[in-house]
Amino acid sequence: MNAEPVHVCPACPVPLERRPAALGSHLECRSCHGVLINLAVLRQSVDDRVITALWQRVHASALAPSRRCPTCPKLLRPFTTTIGDSDVELDGCLLCQALWFDGAELDQLKAVSGRVAPPRRQQRGYGPSGITAPSFYCATDAFDAVSFIADVFFDFSS
Ligand SMILES: [Zn+2]
Ligand SMILES: [Zn+2]
After folding, report:
1. Which residues neighbour 101 within 8 Å (Cβ) at sequence distance 6 or greater?
2. pLDDT of residue 118
């Protein structure tokens, strides 16, 4: 009864898995830990103005596309955005209205977000005892990519 077609990771040849998350489900690659997130999901927690500004960058990007969107036949459009004082390269699909963050891009966001703003969710005390919970951990102690990305863009907008 699995109606969802196979979506292949743009960075490595393995199928993406649908992952539920606190702020909305997304597709995730178990190999490179990349995630595909629909704008509709991000909109639930990120200011519309931030999403609009981000999307304008996807439209305006002059970078050459090379990777295929996991959920449609189009190529992902690479673009850069500035977070804090760093340029971060991401990918967007104009047709699916989705953003792709591969493992390396997420690592870059983690590094940048650590310098830009204090994590918003640190006070909640999530995470195994003895480990300071970073902002992007959800209650299950699993990395919640959607919450993390929403946090990054929230911090970046404020
Ligand atoms: Zn992958
Ligand atoms: Zn697409």
Report:
1. 34, 35, 37, 90, 91, 109, 145, 149
2. 53
